[in-house]
Amino acid sequence: MLKSFHRHILVGVTGGVAAYKAAELVRLLVKAGLQVQVAMTEAACGFVTPATFQALSGRPVLTDLWDPRVPNRMAHIELSRQADAIVIAPASANFLAKVAGGIADDLLSTTVSARNCPLLLAPAMNREMWDNPATQRNIDILKADGITLIGPDSGDQACGEVGQGRMVEPQQILEAVLALYPAQCLKGRKVLVTAGPTVEALDPVRGITNASSGKMGYAVAEAALELGAHVVLVSGPTALTPPPGCELRSVTSAAQMFEAVKAELSGTDLFFSVAAVADYTPAAPAAQKLKKSEQNLTITLVPTEDILGYVAALPKPPFCVGFAAESENLEAYAETKRRKKNIPLIAGNLAQRALGRNDNELTLFDDEGAHPLPAAPKLVLARQLLDHAITLAHLKERL
Fold first, then answer.
1. Residue 173 contacts residue 122 (beta carbons within 8 Å)
2. What is the dihedral of CA 153, 154, 157, 160, to 10 degrees?
């Protein structure tokens, strides 16, 4: 089982024709919402260039034990401590022998030796190399050490022969990685999410609103559903289809959203305040449509209820996660908001980079500091946010 919910995967690539399959594996892992770091042996670089994996993972590829980009020159420690799991694909006969014998003479083998997380090996080699008694002895040692081997398959090989030794397909490796994570870890939990804008009426046909699309809040709801939660989505007006399985509470104004949230607080374990709730509302909306005239129009606005502040101040509040969409000074404003509302976690982003888009770039702020999440589709970020919140809320330990 993985040590955390952060979903950091180290993919190690060793020398072999099957290295091209590792590119597809990295693509699938990233698509599944995992944060992927690639490390390659010198031999692997002869089959696929590091640039390919950097483009697919969005991170620089490491190949050198003494990489100067790692401040303390301990790349093997940095890699092994950041990883929730290490996947070697393809794992050559030479690399299997190194791991079985405890040999650590390059970046990847040293990282594997220093690991404190699960190790998965996807062997790939010629059928004679696989059947070699030395390789089979190494396989027995690896299994006895609790290392997971995925494959190999039998079939056509690059050398033209047919037999055991083909690396399994990337989809099978992805499934093995995902199986490490606790499935349905929010089963029996209630998650309450607010999403979208609110519309504050000026008169029966006009209102004050904002450009929120609701996509981030809907993504959070979908990510919680994937983990088995009972999800209630309180949404302002959007053009989105709610994720199948959630309970939708449609609202228009900030006041309606406040009432809907209060009605759903009972039994809520996690509250995600993602909606872009209006800070002010007209004090006295006109009963009839306002007519245009040559005179200036003055409208008195009054503050709306602080929904997140209300929930966080309850005697026994759910675990509260806020959102801060800023146009400048993100870190200062987001952290000030978090402390003012006394919540454990807030996700901040620059509004001009996110409004209406399908992707985003978030920074999570908690008592430990700032945790940047690289630009990614909003559903991927929502999964990472859920992982972080679950860890902070200690829900894993309460299962």
1. yes
2. 180
Token digits of residue 348: 């901040």
Both structure tokens of 371: 């945790």
Alpha carbons within 13 A on the beta-carbon side of 362: 25
- Per residue in 353-384, pLDDT (tens digit) is 656 567 788 999 999 999 998 888 888 889 88
Catalytic residue (one of 45, 159, 185, 320) = 159
Longest dimension (CA), the chain: 94
pTM of the model: 0.61
Give pLDDT, residue 77.
65
Q: State pLDDT tens for residues 157-212.
A: 666 677 677 899 999 999 888 888 766 688 899 999 999 999 999 999 999 999 89
SS3 67: coil
From 342, 195, 191, 343, select the one nearest 265 (Cα to Cα).
191
Cα 219 from Cα 195, distance rounded (Å): 9
Q: Are 104 and 113 in contact (CB under 8 A)?
A: yes
The pLDDT value given to residue 3: 44
Phi and psi dihedrals of 275, rounded to 5? -60, 145
Q: Classify strands 162-166 and 153-156 as parallel, antiparallel or unpaired.
A: antiparallel
Q: How far apart are CA 166 and CA 319, in angstroms?
A: 47
Above 70 in pLDDT, residue 70? no
Q: Beta-strand (E) ranges in the chain?
A: 8-13, 35-40, 85-91, 119-123, 148-149, 153-156, 162-166, 190-195, 200-201, 207-208, 230-235, 247-250, 270-273, 280-282, 301-303, 319-326, 345-350, 359-366, 369-377
* HEC string for 181-203: CCCCCCCCCEEEEEECECCEECC
Q: State whether the Cα torsion 48-51-57-61 is positive or negative.
A: positive
Q: Are strands 8-13 and 35-40 parallel, antiparallel or unpaired?
A: parallel
Q: Give the domains, in start order, of the chain with CATH numbers.
A: 8-178 (3.40.50.1950), 190-393 (3.40.50.10300)
And the tokens for 53?
């994996």
Instruction: Please say if 45 is a catalytic residue.
Output: no
Distance CA 379, CA 33 (A): 8
Residue labelled with tokens 């290295």: 19
Return left, alpha or beta for 281; rule: phi > 0 is left, psi -120 to 50 is alpha, else beta.
beta
